[in-house]
From TrEMBL:
Amidase domain sequence ranges: 1-447
GO cellular component: glutamyl-tRNA(Gln) amidotransferase complex
Family annotation (HAMAP family): GatA (MF_00120)
Gene3D superfamilies, per database record: Amidase signature (AS) domain
Entries under PROSITE patterns matching the protein: AMIDASES (PS00571)
Protein's name according to its UniProt entry: Glutamyl-tRNA(Gln) amidotransferase subunit A
Known EC number: 6.3.5.7
SUPFAM superfamilies per record: Amidase signature (AS) enzymes (SSF75304)
Stored NCBIfam families: gatA
Length: 454
């Protein structure tokens, strides 16, 4: 199986999904899995996976798709990947992504864009982002599953664009230790797979308390696969009225209605709910995420990690910082650092950053109110459109790209779990996905509900 994946990856250059291949490690891990035997073996014994480039993997390039981390080979392994390998998983290599996980199309990657294996008239489409390489690799059967991270939709949006399943667990369910930080109060790891069952199995292996991440929750990890009973009778599903945006793509609207009908047919009660502060989520997210990014990315100074730009005679330490950061960070990352620095600056902190934090609380309360009324999960679109073409959303208009995240960022602000699951096709043959949002720590329930519509 591992060899078949290695061969498929070697033949998949056009997708630009794997950016560092590790066939030697994979074959060694596969041999160890065989030696262990498959009776009573750990859940992922011998299962070949791809790892998003944001995860630190010991001795293996971990660049976060950034020029500034070129050549960085960590001395340590992230907690999530350690857990996967302890469960017998095999690492095929590192997967493409948007630089530092900032983006929704994989186009901000220093390795160039990943390509969606789904095409319309041979046109190259994006697999979404930031976990675009993970989504493309799973959709093209280059691996059986992949890790992703989701700060504001980066697991769910690429899953929806590629007909794959991706779950962003409750904030704190998976350890962030060893995952290169983007926005620490939002970042969360999760699996990307072909089916809900595979995501359930992978998530059970990835999750769990970690002393090295003070925000990881000290809670037992359920057997998520055992929760997939297919029985959702009596579950209450909320349809948030505020997500019915004016001019929303007709096919997405139809998909959403069909999803509600499927849940009703399976015995759930479907009712309208209100999340009144939803329209403020996107601006609040981009203020908070950029603020945290500007602080997290201050560590890339040309001294401790990765590349240092060539210096001229007489250049001092300031020139070294400036030249290294100007050359190493791509345009989107520089934009976020500037926005983040601005909203945190003395004169503007209250007007932007503090206000965004207050909005965040209101958004969290909206969800709490809906769940307190007995709603088990919320059904919404994952994305406003199907996959778009590479280069179609222009660099000149970053806000147009940010608008892609309108349905996904809300739950990151509230720390809630969300899953994207493929439920339909567009008229031109592209996969379409819906999103289910669950109560905190109730991923088992969420996976079971998603399982009934996949
Ligand atoms: N598109 C969002 C952003 O650029 C989401 C990123 C993510 O979830 N990592 O911030």
């Amino acid at each position: 199986l591992t060899q078949a994946c290695i061969d498929a990856i070697d033949a998949s250059g056009a997708l630009n999904a794997f950016v560092h291949k590790t066939p030697e490690i994979a074959l060694e891990q596969a041999a160890a899995a065989d030696a262990r035997g498959y009776a009573d073996a750990p859940a992922l014994n011998g299962i070949p996976l791809g790892i998003k480039d944001l995860f630190c993997t010991k001795g293996v390039d971990s660049q976060a798709a950034s020029g500034i981390l070129k050549g960085f080979k960590p001395e340590y392994e992230s907690t999530v990947t350690t857990k996967l390998f302890d469960n017998g998983a095999v690492m095929l290599g590192k997967l493409n992504m948007d630089e530092f996980a900032m983006g929704s199309s994989n186009e901000s990657s220093a390795y160039g864009p990943a390509v969606n294996p789904w095409k319309v008239d041979d046109r190259n489409l994006t697999p979404g982002g930031s976990s675009g390489g993970s989504a493309a690799a799973v959709a093209a059967d280059l691996c059986l599953g992949a890790t992703g991270t989701d700060t504001g939709g980066s697991i769910r949006q690429p899953a929806a664009f590629t007909g794959t399943v991706g779950i962003k667990p409750t904030y704190g369910r998976c350890s962030r230790w060893g995952i290169i930080a983007y926005a620490s109060s939002l970042d969360q790891a999760g699996p990307m797979t072909k089916t809900v069952r595979d995501s359930a199995i992978m998530l059970s292996a990835m999750a769990g308390h970690d002393m090295k991440d003070s925000t990881s929750a000290d809670l037992a990890v359920p057997d998520f696969e055992a929760a997939l009973t297919g029985d959702i009778k009596g579950k209450v599903i909320g349809i948030p009225r505020e997500y019915r945006l004016d001019g929303l793509n007709e096919e997405i609207t139809k998909l959403w209605d069909e999803g509600a009908e499927m849940l009703r047919a399976a015995g759930a009660e479907v009712r309208d709910v209100s999340l009144p502060h939803s329209k403020y989520a996107l601006p609040a997210y981009y203020v908070i995420a950029s603020a945290e990014a500007s602080s997290n990315l201050a560590r890339y100074d040309g001294v401790r990690f990765g590349e240092r730009a060539p210096l001229g005679a007489g250049d001092g330490i300031n020139e070294m910082y400036e030249k290294t950061r100007a050359a190493g960070f791509g345009p989107e990352t520089q934009r976020r650092i500037m926005v983040g620095t601005y909203v945190l600056s003395a004169g503007f902190y209250d007007a932007y950053y503090n206000r965004a934090r207050k909005v965040r609380t209101l958004i969290k309360r909206d969800f709490e109110n809906v769940f307190a009324d007995g709603v088990d999960a919320i059904l919404a679109p994952a994305t406003p459109t199907p996959a778009f073409g590479i280069g179609e959303v222009s660099d000149a208009n970053p806000v147009e790209m940010y608008l892609n995240d309108v349905f996904t960022v809300t739950l990151n602000l509230a720390g809630l779990p969300g899953i994207a699951v493929p439920t339909g096709m567009s008229s031109n043959g592209l996969p379409l996905g819906l999103q289910l949002i669950g109560r905190p720590w109730e991923e088992a329930d969420l996976l079971n509900i998603a399982h009934s519509v996949e």
